[in-house]
């Protein structure tokens, strides 16, 4: 039985081996083109779905929700100042340290001290709300990411704020209170302060206020404010909004920034604002929109190349100064026809090179004329030695090559051609 089984297995293996070339020809002739076509189809159809287009956003919607959840329920004007100031993270750090070192400054005394600071008006304005600056300083990485997202895609950031407010309202956690005014205008939720002389900064747990959090991979952070800001308790894992001590409204810190939710912009009114009237800051036109100021960025890198190109300009004077520092010579017109000099071409330029000059020298060696060439070179050497003026010889000796009469010969007739080598050599045979 075992013998029969091995015989059958042997016949099947032999048939497979015998049909191997036919199978390979079939694969090359039929299956290979089909495989290449299927691969090309996958590259054309499937690859773009996973590839990111050049203009694709750098932040997913879940990331934007995570960034904006802690401040989306701020009053509109305070939220606008926070978004603008987040684009200048280094100045935020300086302002936070300033208010911590000067906790007693209020009102006109604070404005007088801020006048000496070369900060963006949005950062100067937040100095009246040290609680916000302290939070931004404690969460500095979040502050920079928030500002980067606002610069990269301002429209999506403002739409995300409205989306989060709608979620909080749908969950029953956003309504008007004595500290907060919540209204709806053209399908946009507007949050303002109901009191004309005081601002309350809301604090809430973003993982609860909007309902069950929908992006577990991007949970929002919660910042518990210190007790010095007047909050009765830390509302962690608590449904609702908690308010601390009110902050007085000063005209230099309030009323100059108004979000336009449908237009995805922030209108600036700096007519009566001390910070915007500073000559160091470009004064916006009445009703003009906020524009980012790159000098106040203080060298902090932008989030991506398109954002960097929008706000970074190339200074040609700086480029020339770097070329001088690196040893490049500037191209100048010569003062005379013979005063031209060769200078290094600018980096990246293409300069036509002149044709090479013909080289003057001995002709190339030709093995077929070696004997004649050797004789000619020997004659030239003899003539060259004879043309050199001879030095005065010692007394009793005639100069080398002189003739009787004291006159040196101008030239000498060529000597006889060298004879064959005594021992027989290459030229003597």
How many alpha or pi helices?
15
For the secondary structure, the number of strands is: 9
The major beta sheet can be summarized as: 3 strands, antiparallel
Shape: elongated
- Give the DSSP E fraction (strand runs of 2 or more residues): 5-15%
Order of helices and strands: HHHHHHHHHHHEEEEHEEEEEHHH
Neighbour order of strands in the largest sheet: 7-8-9
Structural write-up:
The chain has 429 residues and is mainly alpha-helical. It has a domain at 61-311. 40% of the residues lie in helices and 7% in strands. The protein has 15 helices and nine strands. It has helices at residues 2-18, 20-45, 47-50, 61-68, 76-85, 89-101, 107-114, 121-126, 130-138, 140-152, 154-170, 206-209, 305-311, 316-325, 370-387, and strands spanning 181-185, 188-192, 198-199, 202-203, 242-243, 247-248, 257-260, 265-268, 288-289. The strands form four sheets. It has a three-stranded antiparallel β-sheet. It has a two-stranded antiparallel sheet with strand order 1-2. The radius of gyration is 44 Å and the shape is elongated. The chain starts with a helix and ends in a 42-residue tail after the last helix.
SSE inventory with pairings:
Elements: H1 2-18, H2 20-45, H3 47-50, H4 61-68, H5 76-85, H6 89-101, H7 107-114, H8 121-126, H9 130-138, H10 140-152, H11 154-170, E1 181-185, E2 188-192, E3 198-199, E4 202-203, H12 206-209, E5 242-243, E6 247-248, E7 257-260, E8 265-268, E9 288-289, H13 305-311, H14 316-325, H15 370-387
Antiparallel strand pairs: 1-2, 3-6, 4-5, 7-8, 8-9
Helix pairs in contact: 4-11, 6-9, 10-11
